[in-house]
Amino acid sequence: MMAYLDPETGELTVGVMPTEPLTLDADTQNALRRDTEGLEIVRHADGSESMDLQGRFQSVSVVRIDQNGNAVVCADNAENVENILTETTVAPATLEVK
Fold first, then answer.
1. Rounded mean pLDDT of 7-20?
2. How does pLDDT run across 17-60, given as a tens digit for each residue?
């Protein structure tokens, strides 16, 4: 059982995993980017420097309940987040959703 945002309605849905693997939306994919391609350093008159990160270098939190009812958390990089979203293991039916 899992909770996720339904891609069609945007509503929080609690239920069995959809038949198709969940995917990250474009904003979340961008937030997990760690490359500097296209980013430019801006030098200011006072000598300081800054950079618009364009939404990159952020963290996300994804939690999956494993077969034993334990929370498996991923919050560090795109590869781990994608792996946890495509994991086919589902939680036991005895868990209560509150």
1. 72
2. 566 666 778 898 899 999 999 999 999 999 999 999 999 999 88
Side-chain-side CA neighbours of 38 within 13 Å: the count stands at 7
pLDDT of amino acid 42? 98
Residue 92 resides in a domain: no
The verdict on residue 73 lying in a domain is yes
Max Cα distance, the chain (Å)? 62
- Residue 29 is assigned to a structural domain of this protein: yes
Burial (CB < 10 A; 0-12, 13-18, 19+), residue 32, is buried
75-88 burial, b at 16+ Cβ within 10 Å, e below that, comes to: eeebeebbebbeee
Beta bridge partners of 73: 63
| 94 within some domain | no
